[in-house]
Structure formats: C-alpha cells, structure tokens
Amino acid sequence: MNITTQPVSERIGQQIVNVDNKSIWEIDREAIISLYQEYGVLLFRGFATDADIFREFSNLFSTDFLNYAGGAFNRRVINGDNTLLSVNDFQTEIKLHGEMYYQKNIPLMLWFFCANPASQDGETTVCDGRQFFAELSNSTKELFRHKKLKFTAKMQKDEWQKKYKTDDVNELEEMCKSNNTHLTIYEDQSIVLEYLCPVVISSRCGKYQVFINSLLPAMQLNPDVLKFDDDSKIPNELMDELNAIAERLTTNISWQKGDILMIDNTRIMHGRRAFTDKNREIYIRLCSPGF
Predict the structure, then answer these.
(1) DSSP the chain
(2) What is the side-by-side strand order in the sheet with 149-155?
(3) What is the pTM of this model?
(4) Band of the pLDDT at 1, cuts 50, 70, 90?
(5) 90: nearest Cα among 77, 104, 74
(6) Considering 12, 15, 101, 154, which has the largest number of Cβ atoms within 10 A of its Cβ?
C-alpha cells in the first residue's frame, strides 16, 4: 500500500492517513520502520481497529513486551493480556516524561491505542527530547552534565508486592539489582528504594543529546521522592525554565476512536492533559523495536 502521510504538528511526528478505506494490514512495514526511525512518533488514523488488531499490529514491529512491574501507576490488564494495559489511573494532568525513567530497564518503544476518546480534553502530549535539550539555557545544560537525579521511594510490604507483582523478597532483590536500584529491607518488610539516573542522555545513534527523564511529573505529583544525586534540592527556578520549555514545544494529540500511536521512548517524551470523562479509555504496550 502506498503510504499517505502528513505531519502530526509543525514540529513533530508523522500521521499515517488511511485513504480509500484500506486495511491497516496493507501498510508497508519497511516504510513504517523508516518513518519511525526518522521521526520518532507516528500516528495511525482512520483505520478499522480494535484492541485485538492493535495487539497484533504492534506485534509486527516489536519484541520483549513488558508487564509494567515496578511501574509508578496502577494499570488495569485488558482482555487478560498483561502486556496490554489501561493508562487511566487518575484524571489529572501528567507532565512530559520518558516512560519508566526511574529505573535502568526501560521500554525502548511505546504503543498507545484509543479505545474510547474523552468527550473533551484528555489529549496525549508529545515532545521531541532533542528539541527540548536544544532549548535549555547554557547554565542548565552545564548543571545536567554534572548532576544526576536521585529517586527515593518508601513502600510498605503490601505496596511493593502490588507494584512489583511479587510477594517474594528474593525476587524483588533480583529486580532491583537488574535495575541498578539500591534496596533497603526492614524487619517488617517495608522497603526504601534509591535510583540514580541522568537528566540528559545520548541518542541511540550517538549524534544528539536528548532531554528525557521523569523529572517533570515527579516534581508535579510527588516532589518528595526526587533530589539531585548530592541530595541538594531541585530549585524552583529550574523547574520554571523546564515547564516553560515544555509548554512551548508540546504537541497535543486529540484522540479519535481507533487511533494508534507509536513512540520512540529513547527520544520522545509524552504526557497527558487533564480530563473529566470517566469513559476515556487509552491502552498502552511497553516493548522494544523488533527491527
């Protein structure tokens, strides 16, 4: 099938447009891979899709699907598949972030599916981390060269068992070890986790610097978990700069039923605008490229 495309916005991504009522299975796989590698975010719109088609279509391009063990939010399993999850833990805004950047092992690729859009609001937001880095002040770039983020989380026994999907302390220890996370276990089996990560990373090709992390939503939703690696506080002035850049560069994706979104989680940050419609249903899959 010949692909018809248009920009998602003037600054980011490509939209794969269905023309002549074609099937999504007719899309040329190699053309999609090439567009993904160039743009980092692709929106498939106008195709006949459902949750099962979404799962099979994402399987064509992906491998190593994750079940979100250790994830920050509560996610509901869809259709009995623990790699197909709902994102609606709550309805407030979530600022731009890279998925699961509070641990070492991140999904390199993300897929989103719109089972039911909100009647209004609830847009998913995207931003290119390369563009974000370029907008940083020189002093902030220098700061991020020398300081990392330090995530510290305290959890009771029932909390970490739910989050890490295990009641086995030894299994938890192995998970933390593989994620370069320092784990302290107390007599009552409550725990403290500590993880250090950079604010800026090198792109996979090594040619660019990319601002991608979980700094903005952590400071928005739970600022007590986050400091710099020297235990200094993150200044309000710095957050003002970052939030201003985010708003300048953010693209809102207003969902349509059946939309599929494909994201490079090593380059493209995403987030969400607030909404009130409880019928909003967006699904996610976490994985790695299969190419």
Answers:
(1) ---EEEESSSSS-EEEE--TT--GGGS-HHHHHHHHHHHSEEEEES----HHHHHHHHHTTEE-----TT-SS---EETTEEEEEE--S-SS-EEEE-TTTTSS---SEEEEEEEE--SS---EEEEEHHHHHHHS-HHHHHHHHH--EEEEEEE-HHHHHHHHT---HHHHHHHHHHTT-EEEE-TTS-EEEEEEE-SEEE-TTSS-EEE-SSHHHHHHH-GGGEEETTSPPPPHHHHHHHHHHHHHH-EEE---TT-EEEEETTTEEEEE-----TT-EEEEEEEEE--
(2) 182-185, 191-197, 149-155, 226-228
(3) 0.94
(4) low
(5) 74
(6) 101
With a cut of 70, say whether residue 128 has pLDDT above it: yes
- Separation CA 141–CA 275 (nearest Å): 34
Average pLDDT, stretch 51-80?
95
